[in-house]
Amino acid sequence: QVNEEISVKHLPSTEPDPHVVRVGWSLDSCSTQLGEEPFSYGYGGTGKKSTNCKFENYGETFAENDVIACLVDFECGEEVEMSFMKNGKWLGVAYRVRKEVLGGRALFPHVLVKNCAIEFNFGQRDETYFSVPPGFTFIQHLPLADRVRGTLGPKSKAECEILMMVGLPAAGKTTWAVKHAAANPSKKYNILGTNAIMDKMRVMGLRRQRNYAGRWDVLIQQATQCLNRLIQ
């Protein structure tokens, strides 16, 4: 449930879609950017579905107070079907993925949020927002043997690792960091840097550089402010 669209007075009035919730499924190895890489399947409040940065019209728009149900069906033959409901209304099948392509890897619930407060129901609530379609059950009600645990977070700071890059601009720090993160997927590195932040500041999967032609300093300034906040 989208509980609240949080005030965005700090954003410029030109900001497209200041409030976004995107829900769906992805592999444990995927990044946080739901729907913007392979094996990451999202449905967003703008009325679009996306996987691997390919955005298509799907369902309806949704916003504050709406309830979205994410359904995944593993029992429809050789494919896994993913569909969504808005306020109890079924919106149709959004994705069909062949089981052999998933290769036995588990799909995890995934939510991407921008300036919204949301609430989940995995089955822990006494009352459901809307009735569950026949044949489906909440994840929390599945036997443990039928579930796959996601990556556990570090138990203490001693288990964490920080690598700090030092070098002149354009020396190759980001390039090295991206390669090192890709070579060590189990460590799940978060790369903090203005390049990484600008890459996540996409609109409909497209980089913002074209929106800021001639105003590059504005984009860099925003990314630097985000970076300082993240480091804090």
UniProtKB/TrEMBL annotation:
Keyword Nucleus among record annotations: yes
Alphabetically ordered keywords of this record: Nucleus
GO BP: alternative mRNA splicing, via spliceosome
Gene Ontology terms: cellular component: nucleus
Pfam assignment, any one: AAA_33
Domain of life per record: Eukaryota
Keyword Nucleus: yes
Protein known as: HNRL1 protein
Native source species: Alca torda
GN (gene name): Hnrnpul1
